[in-house]
Amino acid sequence: MRRLFLCLLLLIATPVSAQDLGTVLEANREQITKPSRQTIGPVIDEIAASGEGAVAFLEAWGDRRIGVTEDGRFAIIEGHTATDAVTGEPVTDELDSLRPNSGVRGLIAAALVPAQLADPDPARRRAALDALGRDATAEHLPALRAALDDPDPTIAARKARLERLLTIRFDPDPAARVAAIESFAGDSGSDVQAALNPLLTTTRIAAPELTADANVARRLNVGSDLTRAEAYRLLVDADLAPPRLSDAEQKSALAANLSDGQVGDIPVANLDSPDARDRAYRALAAAGAVRPAASTDQVDAALESHVFADVYDEPSAELTDAARGALNDLVFRERAQQGADLMLDALSLASICFLAAIGLAITFGVMGVINMAHGEFIMMGAYTGYVVQGFIANKTASLLVALPLAFVVTAMAGIVLYRLVIRHLVHRPLETLLATFGVSIALQQLAKNIFGTQARPLTAPDWLGGSIGWGEIVSISTIRVAIFVLALLFLGLFLYITKRTRMGLNMRAVTQNPGMAASMGINPDRVAMLTFGLGSGIAGIAGVAIGLFAQVTSELGQAYIVQSFMTVVVGGVGNIWGTLAGAAMIGGLQKGIEVLNPANTLAAQTWMILFIIIFIQFRPRGIFPTRGRFAEG
User: Fold this and answer.
1) Number of continuous H segments (helices) and E segments (strands) in the chain
2) What pLDDT is recorded for position 287?
3) Longest C-alpha distance within the chain, in Å?
4) Distance CA 262, CA 269 (A)
5) Are the CB atoms for 206 and 308 separated by under 8 Å?
6) What secondary structure, in 3-state letters, does 342-374 show?
7) In this predicted structure, what is the pLDDT of residue 601?
8) Residue 109, H or E segment
C-alpha cells in the first residue's frame, strides 16, 4: 500500500507525460547502466513519472541495489534474492550490480523528495528534508508546500522553515520572497545566510549609460574604485572599445613591419614619441597589416563616454534591499554576540586572576612580603583535590570535601612557611623574595617526586560539564561560571572578615600602623601568621577551582603567579578593591589583545606586560593606592 501511495504522489507531483516503467528503462538502458551526472537528470525525471514501480526502482538504484542481467533486464536486489524491476518476478540469472556515484545518487534522492515528504515513515520524511536542504530546485517548492501539514511538530517546523528558504530562492513573486526574508528577522542561521547571499551577487559592467531597470549596487569611479587599466579592460571585454596595446607589443608590431627604413610611411627616425608610434600603428591597421588598437586619446575618450558600475544579478531592487537589510542586521547581531562573548571571556579570566591573587594581596597588604611560593600553594590545592577524588568516587561529594580540605592543607603549609622562614626575615624584602623563591622550587620538586611529571586529572562533576550561552556564538563553560561565583563569594567573605570580625580589625590595624597596633595590645606577629595562613588557604581553594579546567602538574602555579603579581601591582598592593580592579583590567586587556592576534597567546601576554609597565610609569601605586605603612613605598 505504501508503494502505491508513493507512486500516486509521484504522479501528482511530476507533470510529465508518463510512460510505463519498462518502456522508460528499455529506452534509457545505456545511460542507466553507465550514468553521468551531467546527462542522467532527465532520465531520472522520466523514471519518476513512469508510474507503478518507479519509487521502488529509484530507491533501490540510490541504495545500489539494482542489478542487470546479461539480456539487459533490471532487477531489484533484496539480500540474497532478486526480483524483476518491472514485473516483480524472481530473477535467478547472474547480475551485474550498478554502482552510481554520489552525484547521481544525489539526483535520485532529489527526484524521490516529493513522494518522501508525505511518506508515513517520519524517518523518510526527515531524510527527504535533508535531501532538499542539500540540493533543492524550483520544481520542489510546490511539492513541499503541498506537504506542509505534518503530524510531527518538529518535522512540520522544519518543513515550514525550508519552505520559506526555498521561497526566497525560487518563488517568482518578489513580494512573497521579501515576506519570506522578513520572516527570518532575528534568525542568524547559516541556512538563512546561504539563501540571502546569492541575492546580493553582483556583476561589474561598463556601458554607454545605465538602463532604467538596472539594479545598481554602486557606481564606480575610474581612478578611485577602478584603475584606468581595469576600466578599459571592461570596455574591451564588452566590445565597446578596441584593445589597448602595451608599449612593448606596439614596438614589436612596428619592428615586424619595418620596410625601407619606414613604418607606415613614417621614417624610423621620426618614431621617437608615443604619438608618432600611434600614427604609424594606425596606418598599419588601416592597411590590414596589424589588428586595430586604441591610442591614448581614444582610451581617454572611451573612459569619459562610458559609465562603470556593479549591478546586482537579481533584477528586483526591493528584493536586494530586503536581503541587504537582513544581512546587515545579521552581521550586527553577530558582532554584538562576539562582543558579549569577549566580555564573558574577559570576566572569566578576571575571576580566575582575582581568585589566584586575593591571597597574595592579603599577605602583602598586612606583611609587605612578596611570596614567590604563592603559585605553589595553588598547585598544592589542585593536588589536594586530585587526592580527594582518589578516595571519593562521587565527583560532587569529592569537590565539597576538597575545597575546605585544600584550604586547611595550604593554610597550614603557609603557617609553617611563616614560622620557619618569613618571620625571621621581616623588613628584609630581598632576602624574603629569595627565600620564598627557593621554597617554590623545593615544593615543585617535591610534587614531582610524589605525583610524577605527568598531568593528573581533576574531574568536574557532570553538572559543571556543560556550558551556558545564547545565540550561535556566546557561550561560557559552567566551570568558569562557578569560578566567577566562587570569586564573588570570597570577595564577600573577605569584606565580612575585614569589616565585621576582630581578626579583620586587627589586620587593618597592623596594616595601617603596626607599632600603634602593638601598643594597643595586638600581637602583630600572630596577626601576620594568621593572615599568611588565610592568604595561603585561599590560594589552595583557587587551586582546586583552576584544576577543574586546567591540567594539574607541578608547574600549575607558575602559569598564574605572574598574572597574580600583575593583578596586585596594577590594582594597588594590599587593597581588595584594587585587586578586583586589577583582575578586571588584566582579564579585559589580555582578551582584547587576543582578539587582535588570536593565533598567538604568548604575543598577547607580552603586549599586556608592556602595557602594564607603561601604566605603572604613570600610576606607580596602582588603581587604588595603599594607605598605611606602604603608602610611601
Assistant:
1) 26, 11
2) 81
3) 120
4) 9
5) yes
6) HHHHHHHHHHHHHHHHHHHHHHHHHHCCCCCCH
7) 62
8) helix 102-116
The C-alpha torsion from 151 through 155 and 159 to 161, rounded to 10°, is 130
Residue 149: which of 160, 139, 138 has the closest Cα? 160
Q: Report, in this order, helix, strand and coil percent for the chain, each rounded to 5.
A: 65, 10, 30
Q: Coil, helix or strand for 445? A: helix
Scan for cell 553577530, then name that residue: 334
Q: In one letter, which amino acid is 510? A: V
Look up residue 189 and give its amino acid.
G
Most confident of 390-394, 457-461, 567-571: 390-394
Contacting residues for 284 by C-beta, under 8 A, at least 6 apart:
253, 254, 257, 263, 264, 290
pLDDT at residue number 15: 40
Question: What's the length of the chain?
Answer: 633
- Cell 571519593 identifies what position? 392
Which CA distances in Å does 176 have to 65, 137, 183, 319, 415?
42, 17, 11, 10, 76
| Neighbouring residues of 328: CB distance < 8 A, sequence distance ≥ 6 | none
Give the burial class of 412: count Cβ atoms within 10 A of its Cβ; 0-12 exposed, 13-18 middle, 19 or more buried: middle
447 contacts 383 by C-beta, under 8 angstroms: yes
User: What is the C-alpha separation between 615 and 409, in angstroms, rounded?
Assistant: 37
C-alpha cell at 39: 546527462
